[in-house]
Write a structure and sequence with these properties.
101 residues, 2 helices, three-stranded antiparallel sheet
Length: 101
């Protein structure tokens, strides 16, 4: 591990496109500013750890009966699919009159 000392408003560069700046020091708290491309994910360690645990739990196989129960509930709550009516003369639409309009 590389250990560096920085004062307020001093920065360090990671690669060519990531800059970390010490914005403030208040007792034992240090506020850092991070400039990085949007393609770079920046997470606090505790958030990363929580995501790893949640992803691992989600990756476990579901009990088939649970999947069936969820499927039944979704089918019951889904609105019916719209039907298309065909008028005399081949006109299609969700509604029409006897005159074909």
């Amino acid at each position: 591990m590389l250990v560096l000392s920085r004062k307020c408003e001093q920065s360090l560069l990671l690669g060519e496109d990531i800059t970390i700046t010490v914005l403030a020091i208040d007792g034992e708290r240090v506020k850092l500013g991070i400039e990085a491309p949007r393609s770079v994910t920046v997470l606090r360690t505790e958030v990363h750890d929580q995501l790893q645990v949640a992803n691992a739990a989600a990756a476990h196989a579901l009990d088939p009966s649970s999947v069936q129960t969820i499927g039944k509930a979704l089918r019951r709550s889904a609105p019916p699919a719209p039907t298309t009516k065909v008028a005399p003369g081949g006109i299609t639409g969700s509604s029409f009159t006897k005159a074909g309009r």
